[in-house]
Amino acid sequence: MRTRNGGAYPKPRSDNISSHNQRTKRQHAFGLGSSQRQDPPRKRLRPAERPEFFEWLHDDLVLSILSKLAASASSTSDLINVLLTCKRFNGLGMNPLVLLKASRKSMAIRAKNWSESAHRFLKLCADAGNLEACYTLGMIRFYCLGNRGSGASLMARAAMASHPPALYSLAVIQFNGSGGSKSDKDLRAGAALCARAALLGHVDALRELGHCLQDGYGVRRSVPDGRRFLLHANARELAAALSHPLFLPLLGSSPGSACPLLSDFGCALPPPDPHPANRFLIEWFSSRRVEPDGLRLCSHVGCGRPETRRHEFRRCSVCGLVNYCSRACQALDWKLAHKAQCVPMDRWINE
Ligand SMILES: [Zn+2]
Ligand SMILES: [Zn+2]
User: Domain named MYND-type: which ranges (predicted)?
Assistant: First the structure.
C-alpha cells in the first residue's frame, strides 16, 4: 500500500528493533564490542522532526472517514469546520464522494449567510449527485433568486430519483402554474406527482392528495379514498410526533386530562419541523418583503413559498385574509392557528 505521497509505508518499529538487535549480535560475533564500536546516542526528536503519522494514512481511508462525518453532520458548520482544519481535509472534503453523502442538516444554510461561496457549495453537492442539495438549491433558485428554469430542473433531477419533497414541490408548482401564467396550471400532472410523493410517505403530499380526491381536483372524485389518504397523513403525522422529544413532556404536563391527540386529527401536536429549504425561504422573505409587488407569501408558517404572479395562491373562502400555496398548507394552518383566528368577512364588514 502506498501513501498519498506515492512513497511506501515505513516498516513497523518492531522490524527496526529486531534488525538493530541482529546488528548488535553480529557485532558481538565478530568481536566488535561496545568499547570498539558504539552506536551514536539516540537523539530525542523534536516535535517538528517526528514522523507525521497522519500523512501515512491512505487517501481512501480519509475519504471514508470524511464521508461518514458528512453523512452525520448536524449543521453546515460541522462540515465546513472540518474542511478548514488543514489543507488535506480541505482537498479531500470537497471530493464528490464526500459531498454526495452530505446530510440534509448540512444543507441547512441560513438565509442571512447566503453568499456566492454558499451557492457554490450547494452547487458542488448537487453536481456530486446529492439529492438534498439538488432540492434545496432548486427551491432557492426557483423562489428566491427567480431563476425558474434551473431551479425547476434541479428539483426535477431530485424528483426523478424519488426524492419526496422534490416531487411534492413540483406538484405544487404544477397545481399553481408557478413561474408561468394561470393557463400553465396542469392539475393532472400535479396530482400524479403528488401521488408519487404520497406513495413514498410524504405527509403533505398525502394530505394534498386526500383533499384533491375529496374535491375531484386533478383526479376523479372519490370521497372515501380522499378520507383514507387524510387518515394516513394523520397517522404518519402522529408517528413523527411520537418520536419528537417534546412530545412526552406534552403528555406529562396534563395528567388526568384527555390526550391532546384525540382532538381533531391531532391538532395539539407540536408543529412539524420545516425542511431546511422551507426554513431558508421563510427567513429569506421575512427580510425581503414581497407585498409591494402585490405578491404574497403562503400563510402557513412552515412553508415560506411566495406567489410568482398576482393572485396565484388560494385564499381562505371565509375571511379572505390568508393565502395558501396548497390545500395541504391550508389544512395544516387551519389546525395549527387559523381555526382560532378566522372570522367571516361579512361579520367584520358589518361591525
Ligand atoms: Zn404553503
Ligand atoms: Zn379564514
Answer: 300-342
